[in-house]
Amino acid sequence: xxxxxxxxxxxxxxxxxxxxxxxxxxxxxxxxxxxxxxxxxxxxxxxxxxxxxxxxxxxxxxxxxxxxxxxxxxxxxxxxxxxxxxxxxxxxxxxxxxxxxxxxxxxxxxxxxxxxxxxxxxxxxxxxxxxxxxxxxxxxxxxxxxxxxxxxxxxxxxxxxxxxxxxxxxxxxxxxxxxxxxxxxxxxxxxxxxxxxx
Length: 198
Fold this sequence. Notes:
Blueprint: H1 8-15, E1 38-41, E2 45-49, E3 59-63, H2 75-96, E4 100-105, E5 119-125, H3 150-175, H4 177-184, H5 188-197
Helix pairs in contact: 2-3, 3-4
């Protein structure tokens, strides 16, 4: 990525304003030439299908603001990423019907970061992937990456959005309305509550 090449994740953020994950059809101002499959768009985070997935259902969870490395992320952004990664993972795994997955985050070109914008890979591992017998270092990205199939992406995204909505409703049942309000505000209320106690 060069300074003259716009960040693709920043473009996705610009085209997809924050909206409730309870919405099954989030707004988009993307031109017809721009294709992105956005699962989640909050004030601080985005989740979308990887355009070159390692496996079917491969999702990226990223900061909305351009931050190159994890060490550049604010505490508030870190809390938002942490709050969403479990929910997004559960929704994706339920749709994909798998029990195993990778969550991977790379920092810098030598660490295999292709797009210099903080993001986590959520990679479903289907039953046809052999169990790793050798417990030594295994590269998460081994295997062929393919282009995302647009028709499949539309169907997956619809199902994933329904599961995300379900996850938020389950959170409401388990932890109450305050937990949902904090999640939907990407954790900002927690920061304000902590400041008021100091």
